[in-house]
Amino acid sequence: MGILIGVFSVAVFWDWRFYRIPNLCIIIGILVGMAQTYRLYTIIGVLGALMDMLIIFAAFYPFYLIHGIGAGDVKLFMMICCFIRGNQLLAYLFATMLLAAVWSGFKMIAYKECRERLFYLGRYLKKAAFTGIIDVYEIDKTQKNAVIRLSIPAFISLILLNMKLY
Predict the structure, then answer these.
(1) In terms of C-beta density within 10 A (0-12 exposed, 13-18 middle, 19 or more buried), how is residue 17 classed?
(2) Long-range CB contacts (within 8 A, 24+) of 44-48
(3) More confident residue, 117 or 158
(4) What pLDDT shows up at residue 166?
(5) Which among 5, 74, 103, 108 counts the fewest CB atoms within 10 Å?
């Protein structure tokens, strides 16, 4: 878990500073996770981790396509599958999304541009529901306060998991 926290720390730093997560962090994390999984569970564990990665990709890729989350966030969650499995993975993902929602709520209260993004989301969802057309979800990266870096709630959730708080 120490290596995962180290790799995750680098990913969070890069995401915070440059709005991107380097592929090298993800690759190192996946390789270390796969080696650990192989050591603990043999090839069956590695195949299970690969299957979990595929499921995570399938679940989060549509959100990437509409620019709801970044590619680095999807790859970060795929990397987590090499370390965390089964119900613990589901609990981790739930805790991460819950922390992100709470953080988003605080940001919406504090920043006007976040509230404007919420109204934009409402119009976007209404259009998609009534017309069946899913456009690209436009993001104004100049509005720094309206951007949620998902790596931060994911890291906090990882620390809480490591402390066995859920």
Answers:
(1) exposed
(2) 48/85
(3) 158
(4) 62
(5) 5
